[in-house]
Amino acid sequence: MRSDPPFLQLLNLSALCFLVFPFLNLLIPYLLWRKHRHDTEHVAELGRRVLGFQMLWQVASFFTYMMALLLQAAAFHYFGVVLTGLFLAVLVLTYLANVVTVGYNQLMLRQGRLDVYRIRL
């Protein structure tokens, strides 16, 4: 297996494709991972971590939008209030969380650290 740190960084940054079209954050890293997982060092593990985080982000974003929808419905039903900007705020916060996470892990990869996308408590 050959070592290719720039490809590892590309694999990580490919998750930002969701900014262009939703679900590309899963498709592009998956395709890169599948193509290079057997011939490039550390791609198999990093690809699983990137895809795992992106799937978790998709699910968490979905449930966050559903909670916002329920909050909007409850506010309108009980108080007659329409919470303008709620969905935009949720969109911005979830996208920002993903971009910051990918950016942080990109910095770790540039420093040569491969222990990215690990939960540290």
TrEMBL record:
Keywords carried by this UniProt record: Membrane, Transmembrane, Transmembrane helix
Annotated InterPro entries: MamF_MmsF (IPR019109)
Domain of life of the organism encoding this protein: Bacteria
Transmembrane regions: 12-33, 54-75, 81-104
Cell compartment(s), UniProt: Membrane
Membrane topology, record value: Multi-pass membrane protein
Protein name (database record): DUF4870 domain-containing protein
Organism of this sequence: Hymenobacter humi
Top-level taxonomy: Bacteria, Pseudomonadati, Bacteroidota, Cytophagia, Cytophagales
